Amino acid sequence: MGGAFFASYLIGLRDGLEAALVVSILVTVLARAQRRDGLLPLWSGVAAAVLCAAALGVVLTYVATSLLSGVRLELFEAISSLVAVSMVTWMIFWMRRSARTLKSEMTGKLTTALGLGKAAVAALAFVAVIREGVEMVLLVFAAAQAASETVAPLLGMIAGVASAVLLGWLMYAAVARVNLGRLFTWTGALLVLVAAGIIKYAVHGFQVAGVLPGSTTVAYDLSHTIEPSSWYGTLLAATINVTPTATVLEVVIWLAYAGLVLFLFFRPAPKRVPVTA
């Protein structure tokens, strides 16, 4: 339970903190503009996004547990895992690129929305939160399938979101000075490893379903060294999907994804050369 809980906690904290940061920016802009009439539609949009994300989680769980089995279930879980990895990869680089301009960007969008009416404010809040919510649900669902657990990932996600909400409130109240750049950097790096584990699980699902070859080509067998039921075996499997046995293709994909994405993630941003006339 510990590993699955930690992986989902990290996902909930990262995505929840991004959503909390955006919402705190929007609330601050409304307060400074003395437009508190926009708070109700803003929170309505946030609530609608949370409900939609929760509904997606219910649908995914229902489909996986009630409607599918065998090869179809393996394909469904593998495809949903790939979608989750694609979303988190895009979001990690988007946040890295937009962290410095996020406040001015959201302020400009909210100013425009206020001019269009309360419905536009609600729509802006909905879009800002649903993006994080869908990503979080897909990632936690994929992590839960890989860990073969349901309760621990759900509790971890809730705890992560609760921590993110608390941090967001502290940032809004200016009680704590959080180095967001450093926090997003290290949680992003950890999420890359979690995503690498999920894409490895997707490869495993495709191999079991017969879509990819090499299901019997074993890269390593540490079943006599790593006890699957031990605390460290559970932690490794639930967080970065390091299992006692793995195929060659699973290991190659894991290393290729983690190596490439971490290299691009930590690579210094190119310096802009001023254009001279």
Automatic annotation (TrEMBL):
Entry-linked InterPro entries: FTR1/Fip1/EfeU
Family from the record: Belongs to the oxidase-dependent Fe transporter (OFeT) (TC 9.A.10.1) family.
Subcellular location field: Membrane
Major location (coarse): membrane
Organismal lineage: Bacteria, Bacillati, Actinomycetota, Actinomycetes, Micromonosporales
TM helices/strands, residue ranges: 6-30, 42-63, 75-95, 107-130, 150-171, 183-203, 246-266
Protein's name according to its UniProt entry: Iron uptake transporter permease EfeU
Membrane topology annotation: Multi-pass membrane protein
Pfam families: FTR1 (PF03239)
Keywords annotated in UniProt: Membrane, Transmembrane, Transmembrane helix
